[in-house]
Design goal:
The structure holds two protein chains of two kinds.
Chain A lengths: L4 E3 L2 E4 L5 E6 L6 E8 L3 E9 L2 E5 L6 E5 L5 E5 L8 E8 L8 E2 L3 E5 L1
Parallel strand pairs in A: 2-11
Antiparallel strand pairs in A: 1-3, 3-8, 4-5, 4-9, 5-6, 7-8, 9-10, 9-11
Chain B lengths: L2 E4 L4 E4 L4 E3 L1 E4 L4 E8 L5 E7 L5 E4 L2 E4 L9 E3 L8 E9 L5 E3 L3 E6 L1
Parallel strand pairs in B: 2-12
Antiparallel strand pairs in B: 1-4, 3-9, 5-6, 5-10, 7-8, 8-9, 10-11, 10-12
The chains are: A mainly beta, B mainly beta.
């Protein structure tokens, strides 16, 4: 079974731009979560989607949004980028909302200049 | 709220040394506990988990026991290898809300 895939792997943007990151979960997994990883703040939960609905949301501003499609693929969008948004964005999937074992993708490294 | 505290790194050991990375947690309810490992340039990989008190998770020579009385889930390995060099994250998730919280991570370097 293929693992969680994320595209692109690396991205460079400038302040004020917006960006969309993509995540394809493991086949059959219906829950997708997003995390931001930075040296200063560590791993922080952004949001979780299940069956195209957002189930949980972390403490991030409204510039961070996401969605999930009927095939369970997910995208996250960050608008009006700030320097502090530079981070590794990790996606994780799991078979169901109740299952608590997550499988992580390799991440997208976003650099904001 | 729920949180995880793990020992600060970096930790540097010689090959075949004994490893302990401490992890303690604060949680309401009954969380499941995890250790994840992150190799350079990669995402997180689940190393082991425990879902209830006194459970012992083990994998690849690593072990951790869910201790409710001390709210701890310390990671141990009897003999580390150079290939164990990575960042290790302790994490918890409450079983009633799927809100996963991670520790700050501990960087381990094993020298030959």
């Amino acid at each position: 079974k293929a693992g969680v895939t994320q595209t692109p792997r690396y991205l460079i943007k400038t302040r004020g731009q917006q960006v969309t990151l993509s995540c394809s979960p493991i086949s059959g997994h219906r829950s997708v979560s997003w995390y931001q990883q930075t040296p200063g703040q560590g791993l922080q939960f952004l949001f979780e989607y299940f069956s195209e609905t957002q189930r949980n949301k972390g403490n991030f501003p409204g510039r961070f949004s996401g969605r999930q499609f009927s095939n369970s693929r997910s995208e996250m969008n960050v608008s009006t980028l700030e320097l502090g948004d530079s981070a590794l964005y990790l996606c994780a999937s799991k078979p169901s909302a109740e299952n608590n074992e997550q499988f992580f993708g390799p991440g997208t490294r976003l650099t904001v200049l | 709220g729920n949180s995880v505290t793990q020992m600060e790194g970096p930790v540097t050991l010689s090959e075949e040394a004994f490893l302990t990375i401490n992890c303690t947690y604060t949680a309401t309810g009954y969380p499941s506990l995890f250790w994840y490992v992150q190799y350079p340039g990669e995402g997180l990989q689940l190393l082991l988990k425990a879902t209830k008190a006194d459970d012992k998770g083990s994998n690849k020579g690593f072990e951790a026991t869910y201790r409710k009385e001390t709210t701890s889930f310390h990671l141990e390995k009897g003999s580390v290898q150079v290939s164990d060099s990575a960042v290790y994250f302790c994490a918890l998730v409450r079983n009633d809300n799927n809100d996963m919280r991670f520790g700050a991570g501990t960087r381990l370097t094993v020298k030959p």
